[in-house]
Each structure stands twice: as C-alpha cells, then as structure tokens.
Design goal:
Elements lengths: L13 E11 L4 E8 L11 E6 L7 E4 L10 E6 L5 H9 L5 E8 L12 E6 L3 H14 L5 E7 L8 H10 L3 E7 L11 H8 L7 E6 L1 H13 L7 E5 L19
Parallel strand pairs: 7-8, 7-10, 8-9, 10-11
Antiparallel strand pairs: 1-2, 1-6, 2-5, 3-4, 3-6
Helix pairs in contact: 4-5
Flavin-adenine dinucleotide (FAD) binds next to strand 4, strand 5 and helix 1.
Length: about 260
Amino acid sequence: MAEERSVPTPGSFEEPYRVARLRRRTSVIAELELSPLHGELDYQAGEYVLLEDDRGEVPPRSYSVANAPRPDGTISLLVTRVPDGETSRWVHDRLREGDTVRLSGPYGTFVDDPASTAPALYLAAGSGLAPIRALLEAGLRSRARRSLTLIFSARTEADVIDRALFERRQRDQPSFRFIRTLTRGPGQPPHGRIPALLPSTYESLADHDAFIAGAPAFVVACAAAATALGARRERIHTEEFFVEPQPWTDEPPETGERM
Ligand SMILES: Cc1cc2nc3c(=O)[nH]c(=O)nc-3n(C[C@H](O)[C@H](O)[C@H](O)COP(=O)(O)OP(=O)(O)OC[C@H]3O[C@@H](n4cnc5c(N)ncnc54)[C@H](O)[C@@H]3O)c2cc1C
C-alpha cells in the first residue's frame, strides 16, 4: 500500500458544529452538513474526523469528510446506519437539524499529492464515497491530473449517491469519467463487483494512482484487483472503514475475539 504520511496529533482540534442539513441519501446512508459555530477544522481532502454529541452520550466515531475544504468551513459526512451501532443509529434516529455536535481532528493518511499529473482511479462503495468525493472534488478543482475515473459500486440504482452531480461533472470536464456498477438490481450495464469489472475496463494500471475506500473486505478485494493489473503498491491508497474496538465491559475477551 501507499507510503503513509504522519498522522496528525490526536485532538489537535475540537470544535462545535451545527447540523445545518440532514438528508437521507439511501435506505441506509444519511448525509450531514455541518456548519462551524466558532473555529473551522483545517483539513485536507481525504482526511477524517471524530464525531460525537455535545453531551458525551454516544461514543465518538471516525467519519471521513465528504467534501474538499470550503471557504465557509462546511463539512459533509456520509453515515451508514449499522444495526446495533451506537453512534450511527444516533445520527439516523435522534440527531436533528439545528442540533450541535462536536468534531475533532483531522486524522488520517488518505490524502493526495495536489501536484501529481498521473491518471487517478477512485473506487468506492456505500459511504466509502465520502473521502473519495472529497479527493475527487480537490482533483477536479486543481486540474493537474491527466484523467480521473470514479467507479462507484451500488446495490441498486436507488443507491447511486450523487449520480446527477457526477454526470454533470463528466459533461463539463472531459478528463473525468464516471462509471457506476450495480451488484443487485436491474438497470443498464455494467453490473457486478468492481474487482470483476476492472480487467474489462483497464488493460493496465501501471501508471495510475488508485484511491479505494469503504468496508475492509471491499478495499482489500479492490486493491488486489488493482495490483493484478500492474498498479504499484506505493500508488494504491486505501481507507478501510473498520469498526472501532469496543471498550471492555467485564472480562477482557479471548485472544482473537472482537470486543
Ligand atoms: C478511518 C475511518 C473512517 C470511517 N469513515 C466512515 C464514514 O465516512 N462513514 C461511515 O458510515 N462509517 C465510517 N467509518 C466507520 C465508523 O467509524 C463506525 O465504525 C461505524 O459508524 C459504526 O459505529 P457505531 O457506533 O454505529 O457502531 P458500534 O456501536 O461501534 O457497533 C458496530 C458493530 O459492532 C457490534 N458491536 C458493538 N459492541 C460489540 C461488542 N461488545 N462485541 C461485539 N460486537 C459489538 C454492533 O452490533 C455493530 O454491529 C469509518 C471508520 C474508520 C476507521
């Protein structure tokens, strides 16, 4: 995988934000638009933040910022509802527009070199689109790269987040290509998972930078498929949305068992 940048000091920033907008994007993904109440988070596209409520009632969890930095400091997050998940269910079921939340960060190593001119391939599924959308926004803005391709994997057409936005970008910027693939529902091709689709889309990825984000199994499978097409390990950048370890309640678990 890619050479990693040093991780910023945890807690380098913590500020309250107001929930300016809360939208349901798919049956399981909500998008939060957060406006800074005081200071603004100084971050790079691709980084993530810790989100928590302002009373400390839900555990802080990591969420990737879904937009490149904006002058007004707005931050978007795409949050997938996890069955039995404490913080994601709080976002989906209890959080309301106008509420105050706390963000800390930024954290992470999933960032881009703004001067790179190499072709970029962005692979995402579900809320893995969050950091990819931020990187893509920054990449399209800088216009440095020769080409940028987003392949987004969704179960059905209804799960294709921001289709209109990406189709518009594709019309406006000839260097950008948008491909959505469906893993379940009916619709125009392509169908199937990204690792199966890549060999029919690319002969070689030897000169590409690849950015992959989402559930760990998705990221691992896509990285393996990119490697098989010649992508160099140091140019494959990944962000795995693993579930954070739970605090011990009674006894520590047996080795290998997830808490
Ligand atoms: C770098 C990074 C970026 C991320 N970005 C995003 C993002 O942009 N969008 C997004 O939606 N998610 C993202 N995630 C995942 C996110 O941080 C949370 O892990 C996710 O939202 C689940 O949190 P939760 O509090 O809802 O669930 P949790 O309460 O942590 O529970 C998660 C699962 O674990 C199970 N569980 C809970 N307690 C136990 C226990 N004691 N033993 C066994 N199992 C248990 C639950 O049943 C549930 O199924 C990211 C993760 C990382 C590491």
